[in-house]
């Protein structure tokens, strides 16, 4: 393809905005035409100046926001816009009304179980309300018009909805907790109760409404996909008009609908049944559990992962849930008799703790997650609620926020948000689980820092999934002849802390790639250290590691070196062939630390260089080596993470290496770790560096699969309830799962991931009717499904691995299994998890010793040292 | 919520000020934007909070414009008025001068180019996000940014040719 240097696509390419095929086409043109290369360099030069100048532009003085004006007044002012009742808006009128009505139902649901322990009458009531409410709501013109008018400005939704609530719920006791059910209501309620609007929906994509409505707020916010050339034309329309037009002309903005996934063939019955069944429990899930939050997954997963492995179950799983009051209530409200029957083998102390959990953990979460809505609601309804209202006067918003924040702080330190462990899930209601494939090791850094300082880490600084995955395990990779990217290391034995339960280890290992088989690489090393004094030793560690890394590179590889230090980012070594090793090593030696880096320009520069020397079909990667001590502002970090995400999507990956990191709080490393944007490793010893970098240089940077998603499906004939250990704060899970392409989903050669499930087997529980009557007694305990794309192929592929329980005892389990159990045990003890059962630190030490095995890199000995530290601190 | 305010308030204020040309009105608009955020379900804005805020802020600004006819919309020469020129020590001085020069150049671009350039390079939005914020098509956004960079490049071509190979970028 011949391209002119004056092509807008070239600008887009240089700025990293092109994706997929278009990117490849332009990249090929650039590679072929020197004039284009020059243009790209010029564009990058201009872009870096623009970024620098605009970043340095002073921000306006910011005063604290004056939110003290009575909110209702403001809201009403905003809401008083002429109502327009367009005919074509009808379905959305109905949908909006139904959403509001179902919001009322949700409100009932969430309040009833908390107020009395007799869910049955409450449910009967809500069931009948469900029948009547829609009819009540739909013909109510005032509400309809108000709703449509209100939709664009979400601020206006609240009073409207609360009005409806007041109308609809006289029989219920006054709510004691200001539970803002607004957020999830549109999603779930539509799934539950609006088959008719779905058929009338003019949505051209044919995606079910419960999906298209998810991003309604986006549409409401006036986000348009219109292609109006003149922005002033847009200005003429009110948001109300804008929404109507968009809905009519374009269909709703799809968040996941736009992706290929939505277009995958789906089984309508499964889909619908699940959607309906999720409706009630979904809300509890949202409030009560992070893993459970992923109720959206259930719907999606069946579509994505094809036919359920254990047929008949999904439908039956979904149905009973809406009737008997939500199995989440089962799992989380152990005071009801129904609950005890359904999950009888839950340990007693676990039940007690879970009961506490609701008070201690759920309430603060409600506040932190929904405090905004809660306040909104307070104001809208003038509902008086214990801690928030003072003698009839509503304190101003800032005060409320501050109080809420303090309440949260008092509970569990300010840094970490969530404490709660994942609860046991009943298989009948939640037959599947998902977990992320890429897990960072940030928690190990925090735990180690605390323990070495002679104190126990904050409970929620302990993330068991991160601890588990910071260890190395001897999983067998797929055979060389295999074309599939993953091998599974599945094992089950009795859970050492609760012998009546089974513990399942799901390990996945990606294919390893021989060094000579690795494609050519374009590496840009970015070195960033904090203060010159403190950093000097880390700088030499960084140099040592990179020197060893460079020495391993192949002749076809290219390296550039950039340094971000003080206020400036500079290119120490332009992109140079790895054949010219002496030049590279000399440049590396010349690097000096000159002070803390203050921004993200280093990253930008590194990406610019990498982009300019992009190797199509090769490895393009920025290796960011830092001592992690650089503190930069939240906005910069967010910008950096977005940059990393964007670049990763367009083919330039990032490896972040933290050398001798003592504390990652507020650093870019933390943002990267928590967003999962790039891969991250913490390096304390030369052995760490060698493991992370040199093995990688030998092929580990090769992508073996992308868009990888893992789902575990439990067989209800074998499993009564399950619990995913760790992964509590993976709030991005649902989001990730919805998104088609995600940078974190790119899996390099030799990658491993480990997850542990604690399982209540059917044999030790009174089997549920569903398991007895409807599901064939399959011998398998569970099936692991891995969905992925090959690096160079858009086809979705599926790998499946099944596990059958051979009644293995813990003593007979493999060393890896015992060691992983010890890591999880330490995590649960440090978290004071209600599920830790009989585990003590002495147990953990003995499990780890039994599982120490070969200990190739000394990390297991180091872990044992940490366990001993913890024991010494506790005693 | 609080962190959202802390993180984006200043950037939104700057954006809104450029849209309506009036700091007080901009403050009202930003305040309204955050009030709307208060009642947003977390899930609706999660992952694209910045985009959401900028979109709502822009729409509010146009509302104000429609009602009161006060829209300024990235006037030419606005930069000189809004930018503070603080003296900076040492070598940073040179960077500050370069930056001021760049800002002046930006200030002379047509208003729609200014807006997308700022959204792209100051606020870090992708073409797609800018397209959703401004209701322009992605192609249009790409064209505006391309044109703006082209005219800036033209200004720099001579001086850039004299630059040494070593790039030095200042934040």
Write a concise keyword list for the protein shown above.
A: 875 residues; alpha+beta; six-stranded mixed beta sheet; 36 helices; B: 171 residues; mainly alpha; 9 helices; globular
Please work out how many helical segments of chain A DSSP would assign.
Answer: 36
Oligomer: heterodimer
Largest sheet of chain B: none
Bin the helical content of chain B.
over 70%
Low-confidence stretches of chain A: 66-94, 113-304, 312-401, 403-418, 731-744, 764-776
Beta-strand segment tally of chain A: 16
Give the biggest beta sheet of chain A: 6 strands, mixed
Q: What percentage of residues of chain A falls in helices of 4 or more residues?
A: 40-55%
Report strand % of chain A: 5-15%
Alpha-carbon Rg of chain B, integer:
17 Å
Number of strands of chain B: 1
Q: Strand pairing plus helix content of chain A: what structural class?
A: alpha+beta
Task: Explain this structure.
The complex is a heterodimer of chains A (875) and B (171). Chain A is 48% helix and 14% strand. In chain A, strands 7-6-5-8-9-10 form a six-stranded mixed sheet, with helices on both faces. A five-stranded antiparallel sheet of chain A has the order 1-12-14-4-3. In chain A, strands 2, 11, 13, 15 and 16 form a five-stranded antiparallel sheet that branches. The termini of chain A are far apart. Chain A is an alpha+beta fold and 875 residues long. Chain A contains 36 helices and 16 strands. Chain B has 171 residues and is an all-alpha fold. Chain B has helices at 2-20, 23-38, 42-45, 49-68, 78-82, 92-107, 111-121, 127-134, 138-162, and one strand at residues 168-169. In chain B, helix 7 crosses helix 9 (138-162). Chain B is globular. The model of chain B is unreliable at 69-91 and 158-171 (pLDDT under 50). Classes of the chains: A alpha+beta (875), B mainly alpha (171). Strand 7 of chain A pairs antiparallel with strand 1 (168-169) of chain B.
